[in-house]
Structures are given as C-alpha cells and as structure tokens.
C-alpha cells in the first residue's frame, strides 16, 4: 500500500467502522466495473458507509485531501458511469438501503439512495400505490442510481422518467455540505436544481435521500401484441397509435432477429417469421382500457398488422411481456458477446433508422437484434459478436459509432437512458459544439470546482474532442485553435 | 421573425457597458417576482412555430411566440400543453417557460419543466447554445433545458423551446359538491389514491370541484361513482381559476400568496382566506400577514411560499434559501451570466 493510501485508510478508520473499508485485492475486484464490463479498473479503495453522516465525513475528508470520489449504487449502469479510479475512493451507497417512510396520505415515499427500485413498489403495495419508473434492471438497480442516470423504462411514455417522479432530494456537495431541493409539495423554491441533479451521473453531488411520488395502481391493464411482415409498417403503426390520441402505458417493438431469439428462449407465443412485433399496453379505469384496447386493435390492423392478439388473461399478459423482458438474456444465449446501444430518435424517423441499421449490419457483417421502447423512440440495437475473434470488438465499436451518428443525424441523441459515462464521451463531441460542452463544464465547476466527483465521466474535455476530430467547424474556422492537438 | 443575431448583439453591448437587461416577452407577468433593474430587452418579435409534428407529440417555437398562437396550433390537431400555463394577459411561450407556472392539470400530467425537451438559449456571455432536443428521452450532458424552466430569465434568454405535448382527452366533465374545507382535503386525498380519470381537483369555499378526463364511458362511470353536480361550463371554471379571474383573486387588498405544500398538510395557522388547487398541493392565500411568518409556516408544513401578487413592496417574494442552496444558486448564476446582465435580482437579490 502506498503511503498516501495508508494515510487515507488511517483517517477513514477514525470515521468509519472497520467493515466499511475495503482495501484487499480480492475485496476490490467485484468493484472493478459496473454493468459495462468492457471497461475495468481496480479501485484504489472502496468505502461502504452505513449512514448519511458517514458519507458526509468521507466526502469532507476526501475533499480536504484532494482525493477524487466515484459514487456507486447497484452497479447496474451500462455506460461505465461508476467505473472506479485507480487513485480515488469508490463510494458504495449500497448500505444506505432503508425505506424511511411511506406516506400514503401524500402518496410519497422517502428512501435512501441504495434502496432498489422494485423495493419501493413492494413497500407501497399494501397502500394500493406503486412507483412508476421501471427500468429493466429494476430488481437490482437503486433509486440513487436511477436519479444519477435519469433512468426510464417501459412505462415512461405515459408516466415519465425518474425526473418526473421525484419530488425531493437531499444530497451532499463535494465538500460534504448538505443540500435539500424540491419539497414535500410538487415543487421547491429557487432554480430547479432537482431537475438538474437528474442524469448528472454523479458529477454534481452525492444523493443521500430521495422523495418519490407514488401512484395508485391502475384498475385495469391490458396488452396487445401485433405482428407485422414489414418493419416499416410497424414503425408507422407506432406513429399511428400516438397520432390517434392514445397514450399507451408502454409501446415496445422487436424486430425479426429479436423475435426469433426470444421465442426460442422463453416461448412467449410470438409469431416467428414476423418482421416486427409491437407490444402495446394500456392501463387505467376498466372502461377506459376496454375502449382504448378496441381502438388500438383497430388502428394496428389499419396500419398493416396481419395478426393482433389481445391477452386473454393475466397469465398471457405476463407471457407477452416475459419475451420482451428476456430479450437481452436471450440474445446473450446465442452469441458469445453483444454490445447494447442506446440512441433516441424522433419517432417518425424510425423506419428510416431501422433500414439504416440493417444496411450497416450487412456492411459490417455483424448481426444486430433490435429491441426498443418504440413509444419514445429509444432504440437498443444489440450488436452480436465474439470478443475472442481478434479485431471484432473494434469493428463492433465502429458499427456502434455509425449507428449513434445516424441517430444524431436524424435529430436524435446518443443516449436515451443509459448515460454517457466513459463509454459515450466521444459521442458527446459529435452531439455538442465546444461552447455547449464548455457550459457543461461551467455547471460542473459551480458544484465541484476542483473536479473531484466522478472525474472524467459524462462530459468530455475539449482537448479530447479536438483529438478525436469530432469538433464542429463553423465557416471553416477551427474552434479553440489554442488547444494542443496530438 | 428570427431575431437571434440582434438579441445577441444587444447582450454583447450590455456586457461591454455593464448595463443589465430586463427580459420582456408579452409583459403579462411583470407583477411576478422581485423588481429587476435594467434596460428592457424585448423578445416579442422573435416569434413563430419552428416545427410541429403532431405524431411526435413535440412542438418547437421561438420564445416570443404568443402562447395563444401555440395553443391554437395545438388545438387544431387535437393536442394541448398539458401543464396548462396561465396567461395573465398576452403571454409568450418564453415567458411561460421562464416563469415556470403550471395550471390545474399539473398534479395529473406534470409541470412546465416536465414537458421541456430542449432549449436554445442566449447566455449572459452572449453565446447561443442548444441543449436537449426534440426527443422524449435524452440523457446526453446535464439537463440544462429543464433548469431554465422557472429560472425567471436569470440564467439566459430562452430563444427557442421544444415542448412535449399530449392529445386532448376525448371527453372532459366537471363536477362540484358542497363540503367543508377540512373535509375537502380528505376527499381529495381519497380520490387521488384511486384509479380515477382525474385531471383537476380544487376547492373554493364552499365547493369542491373535480374535472374528469378520458374516454366517454370512463368519464361517465367515474362521474356516477363520485357524484355531485355537473357544471354546464366546466372549462370556463378551470380557466377562470387558472387566470385568477375569480372573486377570490380579484376582490380585496390583501396580498396573494402561493403556498406549495404536501397535499395532505393541515391548513397553516395563518390569518386570511384560502383556495385550494392541485388536489391540495397548491394553496392560494389572501392575507396581510407578515412575510416571514408565512415563509415559516409553509416551511414548517414541509413546503414553501411565494408572494405572488402584492400592491406593496416586492423585496421578499420567494422563500429564503438555506445558505448551502443559496451558494449553489450564486455559482450557477456565475456559470451562465458572470457579468450579471440578465434580470439581476428578479428571483433573489443576489441572483
């Protein structure tokens, strides 16, 4: 152990119990990566405080010593947002996992950041309430991590993202100062720092408490499955349903490759041979769901669906969803490796983008399965490959870049819900011009002047963009010509 | 119609001469917030709907576009701004976003900031920047678009905004019934905990008002279940509430306070008359009570207060912030408007 590390461990032992500090190689290893295992780094050391007060003390200590800190929740992130540093503290919030209060009168829950997403709904269930945001990893991902990534899920077309369902936050600044934003009501005083914290990927503060909004269970839920023999028609059906004034609770799509893989894996009853399947969930009062299901079925047929099935009972509804939810593991079964992309596009460009992805897939000779949140235009192309084949990962990354460039070109974005992390830093150079990136850095400095919280993530340095050649050039003038280019 | 370069030049001149600017849209909310000193910067001519694709549920408009024009364009396609921003006169889109005020539908569909997808803004450094976009889900970079909602022009001049919109419900119906004020809060909480097609819940003594929205049969069956008198012109009631045209708002000399509270919070121990909106989470108070006492009472109940309209001095308008939060406000102001050119003092004296 280096002297600096020994000194830090000594100081940490004064403020934390023995079991909250991990220093041995075998203890550190599980923290080398988050859900994106392609990027790994052995953390310098890991601390796992039990209380917000201990978190505060750790931050204050690190701030004083100029030691960088990376906060980590469930470690399910898919962009390397919780990738540790070899010279910094990995701050696990997993032990801050208490549900502090369920308040059915005000329909809110106060929870610590390490509470799992699904645990909130489980705790609220006896009151007939639930927490709407449902990222696919909800069994394992934490509410604090959801805030950091502004996580979405199947239901966010109708119920919004994490930011729409959080009413208040307590967080600690890099110096360990406590800040509360939002309120027990529907808004807080001053600037909307509550919104700003969402999706800030741990760069602005460390969340210690979250107040979430709970909703009553819908009286009725229905799912329709529509099969198409042309992916373009399915894409148009998505626009058709929304244009007709329906706001489904979920509107999900799978392409031919995904359907085949999933059907083979879970036998959900999907029509193998279809070019695309749409799942359309409607929820609300019984009568509304009946009326809307009938309308949706008619619309889907009108848009070219050759088969529309309405789930006959709860078991069938669950089976329809089981396929969609198992899509990632199903793909994992048939290929040694896959790379999951996360671009969002305007819905009306869906058909065009899917055709583009297919063209790129053929050009690179890499198969792509498409499983995505069609209702909000959030694509998750899964590129299948074999990492043991020399050079294949590099080809996958190039294909992935081209897919994201296509998303940006049609007016979309490089990440809809997984975050930038370390993975999409270069993509940020394509999407934002240097002045916008500099504004992000200015906001970062407002919260963390020395850049100690999760450094190197989410917002690329201008130098990095310059090296990549991804800078926008206006009128032939190279911006930031003062920067060194390697 | 695109006045971006002209606005940019005005800001650059203001930076050079260190003369602050007061951003003016339609001027409909001049009464709101603290008074700000500076030369007027009108965005009124910077107008027009830039893009509107109804199947995308997204509309993009320049900030000086009259709110009424935008709403008309949406209505023609059977869509609406779900946050029902109050107009208070000839409001502009930019003003509605900067003020961050939402109408009766807010607890059911969301606030202004919940529907902001992207903005183009002019910072206090004279830079034109774009954040967010026109897509529903976007986590690339910090969410500076939503931060601008309700920022009262203190961080930048909103040039253009992309908003998520929603289809208008097929049917809307308003019911009213007479109840006592404490009973009203219980009833609201009870209904809010059920799967009902609610879209507004307010109480103006002695009547509790509920708006139902959705499909024909769903609204009819909910109306049967809840009971009460059907209002022939329900929408007019909600509009007069949103626009503060009801006698509660227009009569008398007492200050109008907005209390944002947990919906089930008991009535604050404050003198004056009260009107409830947002199922109890937004309470309007007409009172001449001392500002500090009102701020304290709201905070004690887990919320905050705003002096919304006053004929008197406008020094203390917004809930005082604890120092840790105030510090972040000052740092953010510095990050967007280091020369303090834009609406200085409109929100807090030091902002």
What labels would you give this structure?
heterodimer, A: 486 residues, alpha+beta, five-stranded antiparallel sheet, globular, B: 351 residues, four-stranded antiparallel sheet
What's the arrangement of secondary structure elements?
The complex is a heterodimer of chains A (486) and B (351).
Chain A: H1 3-15, E1 21-22, H2 25-28, E2 45-47, H3 52-65, E3 69-72, E4 89-92, E5 99-103, E6 108-111, H4 117-124, E7 129-130, H5 143-149, H6 156-159, E8 166-172, E9 178-182, H7 193-197, E10 206-213, E11 215-216, E12 220-228, H8 231-243, E13 250-255, H9 256-266, E14 276-284, H10 286-302, E15 307-310, H11 314-325, H12 327-334, E16 337-340, E17 343-344, H13 350-364, E18 368-372, E19 378-379, E20 381-385, H14 392-409, H15 425-431, H16 434-447, H17 462-468
Parallel strand pairs in A: 2-4, 3-4
Antiparallel strand pairs in A: 1-2, 5-6, 6-10, 7-11, 8-9, 8-10, 12-14, 12-15, 13-14, 13-18, 16-20, 17-19, 18-20
Chain B: H1 4-17, E1 21-24, E2 39-42, E3 49-53, E4 58-62, H2 67-76, E5 79-80, H3 93-99, H4 106-109, E6 116-123, E7 128-132, H5 144-148, E8 156-164, E9 166-167, E10 171-178, H6 181-192, E11 198-204, E12 207-214, H7 216-226, E13 229-230, H8 234-242, H9 247-250, E14 255-260, E15 273-277, E16 282-287, H10 291-300, E17 304-309, H11 323-336
Structure description:
The complex is a heterodimer of chains A (about 475) and B (about 350). Chain A has helices at about 5-15, 25-30, 50-65, 115-125, 145-150, 155-160, 195, 230-245, 255-265, 285-300, 315-325, 325-335, 350-365, 390-410, 425-430, 435-445, 460-470; strands spanning about 20, 45, 70, 90, 100-105, 110, 130, 165-170, 180, 205-215, 215, 220-230, 250-255, 275-285, 305-310, 335-340, 345, 370, 380, 380-385. Chain A has 17 helices and 20 strands. The model of chain A is unreliable at about 470-485 (pLDDT under 50). In chain A, helix 15 crosses helix 17. A seven-stranded antiparallel beta sheet of chain A has the order 15-12-14-13-18-20-16, sandwiched between helices. Chain A has a five-stranded antiparallel beta sheet with strand order 5-6-10-8-9. Chain A has a four-stranded mixed beta sheet with strand order 1-2-4-3, covered by helices on one side. Chain A has about 475 residues and is an alpha+beta fold. The two termini of chain A are about 35 Å apart. Chain B is of the alpha+beta class. Helix content of chain B is about 30%, strand content about 25%. Chain B has helices spanning about 5-15, 65-75, 95-100, 105-110, 145-150, 180-190, 215-225, 235-240, 245-250, 290-300, 325-335, and strands at about 20-25, 40, 50-55, 60, 80, 115-125, 130, 155-165, 165, 170-180, 200-205, 205-215, 230, 255-260, 275, 280-285, 305-310. In chain B, the strands form five sheets. Chain B has a five-stranded antiparallel beta sheet with strand order 3-4-8-6-7, sandwiched between helices. In chain B, strands 11-12-10-13 form a four-stranded antiparallel beta sheet, sandwiched between helices. The radius of gyration of chain B is 21 Å and the shape is globular. The model of chain B has no long low-confidence stretch (mean pLDDT about 95). Chains A and B meet through strand 9, helix 7, helix 8, helix 10 and helix 15 of A and strand 7, helix 5, strand 9, helix 7 and helix 11 of B.
